[in-house]
Amino acid sequence: MDRLEFLNDHYKDSFGLLKSEQSNRNRLFICLCIIVIIHFFLIINTDSIMTIFINLLKDTYNIDISNQINIIQNLLWFVLLYFTMRYYQSNIYIERQYKYIHKLEEDISKLSGIEFYRESKSYLTYYPLVLDFVHILYTWIFPLLFEVVIIARIIMEYLSYSYIKVSLIIDFAIFLCCFVLTVLYIVAIHRKTPINQENE
Question: Would the pLDDT of 113 be above 90?
């Protein structure tokens, strides 16, 4: 197998993995949005949302935790942290894979003498404004709205307690993890690299 054939096979495998991860990322984004919406509604009307969760657990699993609201709040924060980590990992992996795909296309183009830039130069030429806006939504607006919601949520939770409880400390620790992860995600996704500069 010559180098060109090897690179072409490797490109197809890499591109397949990228597409698979994009589907995974989209599912994670939907799940994360649902969890963020739940936290948002908890800010607006905590009692109603908690009643829904309690009834859901009671009807589905025959578990009555009506006196353990703190457990539900802890659980919701843990779920938020899990999907936050998974979504950011997936998105950063995709960004890194794109850079690798661009490099493979460049190498294949040089070896074959044929322009082979499906995902790099060809895709980025005359990039539509609507895709720019979608990129801004994914990488700026959503993370910033996410930060606003979790800050408001932890403040509301703190104000609802008459004294500091272990469950509040746990929730605050998870909040800090989500907050820091989001800041690091924004920095990572907007970090200037040769490929990012080429895309602008």
Answer: no
